[in-house]
Amino acid sequence: MLTSIITGPTPGPRRLMVYGVQGVGKSTFGTQAPSPIVIQTEDGLGEIDCHKFPLATSYAQVMQALAALYSEPNTYRTVVIDSLDWLERLIWNEVCRERGVKNIEEISYGKGYQAALTFWREVLDGLSALRAERGMMSVLIAHAKIERFENPETDAYDRYAPRLHKAAAALVQEWCDEVLFASYRVHTRTTDEGFNRHRTQAIGSGERVLRTTERPAHAAKNRLGLPDELPLQWSAFATHLPPQAA
Fold first, then answer.
1. N or C: which end of the chain has fewer CB within 10 A?
2. Bridging pattern class, strands 229-231 and 36-40
3. Virtual CA dihedral for 146, 152, 154, 159, nearest 10 degrees?
4. CA distance 198 to 174
5. In whole angstroms, what is the distance from residue 90 CA to residue 84 CA?
């Protein structure tokens, strides 16, 4: 066994989640990755010139797309799933179909959401196979939600997180190498209006950024030692990729 020990970094194709506020440019970022092919689970790519599978309306169609990329000859280097929160709806529909119910909430004690994790693992296993056998990068797009975060070291507070059930979000974020939050840069300005009243105004220039590290305002992580912020452009992210992983 000692002869099989591996030393030094061994970077592979990145496993990346990008989530963020509506309309910030998450899909555009994903389609700027090298030689991308998009598995669509929501109808939002009409204005973007890219290669994409027809809109998936079932979980089976998503898995068929992953299987085709694995087994059929192609030159794609990146698989993009757009988006995870709409994929989650397809997964929930599949759970309901198997259990003979109309709504996942009908499955008591939260067991429906636990059953959904089996299908999430199948998706991640498919992406892992593409990474290992076909050298493909994964870019997973998700919308953002504001959730209450129960921090054991402080009072609870609100923060941005991927718009997924908490169990699915934890599973996907653990699998990913990078979890990046896309948003607009916003500043606030407080003015004194007299009579002990103050007015706070949000100010922004429309600059779009990627937040790369965990902060109280948002969930994020990276394994590349990225700066805390990057421009929301693939070219800015790609400059930090190891040559083997680019």
1. N
2. unpaired
3. -10
4. 42
5. 10
**Amino acid 7: pLDDT:** 72
| Residues 128-138 as b or e (16 or more Cβ within 10 Å = b) | eebbeeeebbb
pLDDT at 163 > cutoff 90: yes
Q: What are phi and psi of 244, to 5 degrees?
A: -70, -25
- The upper half-sphere exposure of residue 105, i.e. CA atoms within 13 Å in the direction of its Cβ, equals 0
Do residues 172 and 84 touch, judged by C-beta distance below 8 A?
yes
pLDDT of residue 205: 62
Helix, strand counts (H, E) of the chain = 6, 11
Who has greater pLDDT, 10 or 13?
Answer: 13
The pTM for the full model equals: 0.89
CA distances from 64 to 24, 53, 71, 79 (A): 30, 10, 10, 13
Integer CA distances (angstroms), 210 to 81, 95, 101, 191, in order: 18, 34, 40, 29
pLDDT bin (cut points 50, 70, 90) of residue 187 is low
User: For 102, phi and psi rounded to 5 degrees?
Assistant: -95, -25
Pairing of strands 229-231, 208-211: antiparallel
- CB atoms closer than 10 angstroms to residue 21: 16
The answer to whether 130 and 15 are in contact (CB under 8 A) is no
Read off φ and ψ for residue 224, nearest 5 degrees: -115, 0
- SS3 state at 231: strand
Q: Which of the 8 DSSP states describes residue 108?
A: G
pLDDT above 60 for 200: no
Strand duo 51-52 + 78-82: pairing: unpaired
